[in-house]
Amino acid sequence: xxxxxxxxxxxxxxxxxxxxxxxxxxxxxxxxxxxxxxxxxxxxxxxxxxxxxxxxxxxxxxxxxxxxxxxxxxxxxxxxxxxxxxxxxxxxxxxxxxxxxxxxxxxxxxxxxxxxxxxx
Length: 120
Known about the structure:
- With 120 residues, the chain is mainly beta.
- It is built from no helices and 11 strands.
- Strand 5 (46-52) and strand 6 form a beta hairpin.
């Protein structure tokens, strides 16, 4: 079992910055990748950034150049640095972790979400 807890969401103005954190506990040695997803009000959940156990990162086009995903040295915490925030970045941000090797049936885990609101 993997448990994820997000923190850092807040209300900010357009152009502001936030750093989200996701702390993992449990069978963290089984995690092979982690990601941040978001869900806008009335919208569907979409991936905004991901990072593999090897440090390879990927970003949605809408956040490239503004968001940065990273991990601490132990791999227990993943961060999402969000700069130059826009109103369209508003939503609930969820931490995701996958266990198991690529190209296998992998088990997903989700945090409870943290609210990010960007005012115009």
